[in-house]
UniProtKB/TrEMBL annotation:
Superkingdom, taxonomy of origin: Bacteria
Phylogenetic classification of the source organism: Bacteria, Bacillati, Actinomycetota, Actinomycetes, Pseudonocardiales
InterPro entries (UniProt xref): GrpB/CoaE, NT_sf
GO function term, MF aspect, one: transferase activity
Keyword Transferase in record: yes
Name of the molecule in the record: GrpB-like predicted nucleotidyltransferase (UPF0157 family)
A Pfam family assignment: GrpB
PANTHER family on file: GRPB DOMAIN PROTEIN (AFU_ORTHOLOGUE AFUA_1G01530), GRPB FAMILY PROTEIN
SUPFAM superfamilies: Nucleotidyltransferase
UniProt keywords, alphabetically: Transferase
Length: 186
């Protein structure tokens, strides 16, 4: 969402339910997050078959030793995320609920309140997919960048945000700094 500049109007146009105030709290890394991903990944592959061209665990819960919001993030590669009839009925049938509609991107949610999962649908070759994976892999392999990112997140917790996307936007400068060190030139 930040590519267009984050504003309340942008959020209202992309969030299916509109902005939702949130207080971000972090949890210490939990190895069960990888298990939650594995269960959901298998479910996605069963539901979508070959239409799921890529299924990856992304975000902070995919990085050992990194504190995170206890929400597992998954990216799935779909040939055309805007063609909802080609995949959305199968995702809704297993319980996913659309939360974000943007050109070339859908975000769905399942598992609330106990085991929440965000599912991001992009074309497999989308730059955003590459950024997610590059960032995850950098944090897995570089202790200093992982600590920098966690310190940044901790500095932003414990306050009320008009929507979680504002929290994400506040982390963006550090994310871009880490991505540049990882070789991102976009």
């Amino acid at each position: 969402m930040s590519d267009r500049g984050l504003t309340d109007d942008v959020l209202r146009s992309t969030l299916v339910r509109g902005p939702t105030p949130v207080r971000v709290e972090l949890a210490e890394h939990d190895p069960a997050w990888a298990d939650r991903f594995a269960v959901r990944a298998a479910e996605l592959r069963r539901a979508l078959g070959g239409r799921a061209r890529l299924v990856e665990h992304i975000g902070s819960t995919a990085v050992p030793r990194l504190a995170a919001k206890p929400i597992v993030d998954i990216v799935v590669g779909i040939d055309d995320p805007d063609d909802e009839p080609a995949y959305l009925p199968e995702l809704e049938a297993v319980g996913y609920d659309v939360r974000v509609r943007q050109p070339g991107h859908r975000c769905l949610r399942i598992g609330e309140p106990d085991e929440p999962v965000n599912l991001h649908c992009y074309r497999p070759e989308d730059d955003e997919v590459h950024r997610y994976l590059l960032f995850r892999d950098r944090l897995r392999s570089d202790d200093a960048d992982r600590r920098l990112y966690e310190d940044t997140k901790r500095s932003l917790t414990g306050r009320e945000w008009p929507d979680v996307n504002y929290y994400a936007e506040a982390k963006r400068p550090v994310i871009m700094e880490i991505l540049r060190r990882a070789g991102w030139d976009g």
